[in-house]
Amino acid sequence: MTITEIFILAILQGLTEFLPVSSSAHLILPSAVLGWKDQGIALDVALHVGTLLAVVLYFRKDVANMAVAWIGSIKGDNTSFDGKLAWWILFATIPLGIFGLLGKDFIEAHLRTALVIAATTLIFGFLLGFADIKAGKRKATEHIDFEKLGFKGAMLIGLAQAVALIPGTSRSGITMTIGLMLGLSRENAARFSFLLSIPAIAMAGSYLTLKLITETGPVDWSAIGLGSVLAFFSAYACIHYFLILLEKVGMMPFVIYRLVLGVALLWFVLA
Description:
The chain crosses the membrane at residues 6-29, 41-59, 85-102, 114-131, 189-209, 221-244, 251-270. Helix content is 80%, strand content 0%.
């Protein structure tokens, strides 16, 4: 791939991994619409490494507190909420792993198309808009506390994350949608989605790394390094400014973007 293509794809990955607009859709679209070659496993690994480092670093205090509390919960000497939250996130990641292993071949063969992306972009865009309007009508005191999400609520969000294996759905979008519908505030829905992304991205990156080691030939390490750095900085900036924007205007700018993109894709496919 050219430096320009690596630059564009890395920035797209960093920006869209955590926005509710589907990173997989935006990475597939250049090949579907512009005729670019698939970015390949090596660049996929690089982009996952960059975005994973970004979210871990941004939420480093939360991650550290959960890690310490989780270890303490195993030893039986820590019953804090951070330990409970760590368990929720780990269990909520299981559906993604199961559906990913069972459905990856079918998804790769049949669902990575512009038409599927257009449909899921529109459908889940409408659902996100509905959830955001519902959340906007609640008073601050009517949002449920983060602690009251419960194991059941966490698992529902985890199941939604597994649905996001379908390109165009958006992992962050659908997890935030369910979080909002369960009564979380916009900020807490986003926070849980970001924390849930850590094992999800790590799992996907590990799988791709294994494929890279066992199935490919020579690796372009300079491309991997450049992709990782660009994805890291764009992802970190995205998380920071998204949380600021979310507090001021909610999800509607992203809902509108999804609907416009979905209609444009339908026109491209059906014209």
